[in-house]
Amino acid sequence: MDGKAPRTRIQEKNTAAILEAALEVFSQAGFRGATLDQIAKTAGLSKPNLLYYFPSKEAIHVTLLSGMLDLWLDPLRAIDASGDPVGTILGYVQSKLQMAQEFPRESRLFANEIVQGAPRVLGIIEGPLKELVDEKAVLIRGWIDAGRLAPVDPHHLIFSIWATTQHYADFDVQVQGILGPSEQRFDDAATFLDHLYRSALTPR
Fold first, then answer.
1. How far apart are CA 29 and CA 41, in angstroms?
2. I need a surface site. Which of 19, 133, 145, 171 has the fewest CB within 10 A?
């Protein structure tokens, strides 16, 4: 127990409203362009009321990023040695693409943070994230050494999956500008990426 009294229903409701409003504002304006006044207005709260829950814009931003990273990394954590290697990685690709479709604002929030040099999450990237990616790279390397995957660089494989799936969230305006607004773009992307990674990973 941390000694804190449990939050009331209205406190939980207001906290959720603040985080939802902040996600909308940050994903559009970035961290530097967003203001507490904008977030409070979008949440339907006064600025003093907002500051009761979060002491600063940075505190809201860090809370959003931490929660997003937990969600974003769950499919990577789920990769284990028990499944078929090609099928497991293809499943990871499809999970990441689905998340790009369902959580585009969260993806753009993280992309904006990285573009700025990751000032608020660099410790996570160089610590827990690096440890997780290194752990999965060792697993993938073991599959390669056993002849169950074609020889690829495990780290760059993971990077490429992030790039090819999150592109559909971070550059959605560009994708829709070229292909049009139909949701078919995600189905087509899923088919293409399955073919791309299946071809690259299946042992010859």
1. 15
2. 145
Which residue among 9, 37, 55 closes a domain?
55
What is the distance between the terminal CA atoms of the chain, rounded to a whole angstrom?
55
Instruction: Tell me how many domains the chain contains.
Output: 2
Cα 162 to Cα 25, 95, 169, 203, distances in angstroms: 24, 11, 11, 22
Instruction: Please report, for the domain that includes residue 187, its CATH number.
Output: 1.10.357.10
Residues 22 and 111 in one domain: no
Per-residue pLDDT of the chain (204 residues; tens, 9 = 90+): 344 556 788 999 999 999 999 999 998 888 889 999 999 999 999 999 999 999 999 999 999 998 888 888 999 999 999 989 999 999 999 999 999 999 999 998 899 889 889 998 899 999 999 999 999 999 999 999 999 999 999 999 999 999 999 999 999 999 999 999 888 999 999 999 999 999 999 998
Sign of torsion, CA 39 45 48 50? negative
* Contact present, 62 and 120 (Cβ < 8 Å): yes
The pTM score is 0.88
Residues 6+ apart with CB under 8 A from 83: 91
